[in-house]
Design brief:
Elements lengths: L1 H34 L14 E5 L4 E6 L2 E7 L21 E9 L7 E4 L4 H9 L8 E4 L16 E2 L2 H10 L5 E5 L1
Parallel strand pairs: 1-8, 6-7
Antiparallel strand pairs: 1-2, 2-3, 4-5, 4-8, 5-6
């Protein structure tokens, strides 16, 4: 009897060890899946044909023709009223531009660049004896700036999760129209 009991106990121990190994392995795989979740999403929907930004309403629309595919709230520069005139004014440009670059390693999570300044922007700033500035992006929001109002240096800031979607949906050379 003792031989049989020991054998069953030994088998039970092996079964428990296998179960522990399976459960532990599944937990580790789940954690590894969380740790390696990519910020790069895949978008298979209709093409974004333009972006419309309404600064005063703090609304941005990703458009397919005349239909809004997605709507986002956002934060702007520290002095958001009026068009960007020169470097350091804390304003977001107004007018017609293009999405002209993307930065997967942005200090602000992900970002897509806006083609500011155009020729008119350069001429206006030069006439004032100033530089027009540049590096205007749509980008994510660092943790310490979440829930802050109008904190950027002239960019358009959305949540990091929203930026993942925008980054996937919007292609380079997409027109962006920024309204007061």
């Amino acid at each position: 009897m003792h031989g049989l009991e020991r054998r069953q106990t030994g088998q039970a121990t092996v079964m428990i060890s296998r179960r522990t190994l399976l459960v532990g392995g599944a937990a580790l795989a789940g954690l590894a899946g969380c740790a390696t979740q990519s910020k790069f999403r895949n978008y298979q929907g209709p093409q974004v044909t333009s972006i419309q930004v309404f600064k005063s309403r703090r609304k941005m629309y990703l458009m397919h023709g005349d239909k809004a595919l997605r709507t986002f709230d956002f934060e702007l520069g520290g002095d958001p009223v009026g068009a960007k005139m020169y470097e350091g004014d804390g304003k977001t440009p107004e007018g017609a531009y293009m999405i002209n670059r993307r930065n997967p390693n942005s200090s602000y999570y992900l970002s897509i660049g806006i083609s500011y300044p155009n020729e008119a922007d350069v001429a206006r700033a030069t006439a004032m004896g100033l530089r027009p500035g540049g590096d205007i992006f749509i980008h994510g929001t660092p943790r310490e700036m979440r829930r802050a109002q109008d904190w950027t240096a002239g960019c358009i800031a959305v949540t990091n999760r929203e930026m993942e979607d925008i980054y996937a949906m919007v292609r380079d050379n997409t027109p962006i129209y920024i309204f007061p």
